[in-house]
Write a structure and sequence with these properties.
By secondary structure, the chain is an all-alpha fold. Helices cover about 65% and strands about 0% of the residues. It is rod-shaped. The termini are far apart.
């Protein structure tokens, strides 16, 4: 299965600037960095829209961190519920400390004539 590569925003911004300044062609950039031309086109469009600004990058990073925190909080909540459930199950299965344990015994033992004498 193919893995998707991720690129830092600074790299995307640099490639978009190189293309827009005319320093290199789209084909040359794609070949030099082993990236599809369409992907570079998308980055150039986003750069022109201002989506590679530092403030936008910080906002996206903050949003990503908030999503991770929310997922971790949900996980902690589920684990806390599981722990409480397990504690209740363990408490109900333990014998009470003040109760005497019952011992089941068999029939009374009768002495044999050999032992009776």
């Amino acid at each position: 299965m193919a893995r998707h590569r991720t690129y830092p925003v600074a790299f995307k911004r640099q490639l978009a600037q190189e293309y827009l300044s005319g320093q290199e062609t789209l084909h040359g950039l794609a070949r030099r960095h082993d990236i599809s031309r369409n992907l570079i086109r998308i980055w150039v469009e986003r750069y022109q829209q201002g989506r590679f600004d530092d403030e936008v990058e910080a906002a996206e990073l903050l949003e990503e961190y908030e999503a991770k925190i929310a997922a971790l909080e949900r996980m902690v909540g589920r684990q806390a519920l599981e722990i409480e459930l397990l504690k209740k199950g363990l408490a109900s299965s333990r014998p009470r400390t003040n109760a005497t344990p019952s011992v089941v015994t068999g029939p009374a033992v009768s002495l044999s004539p050999k032992d009776a004498g």
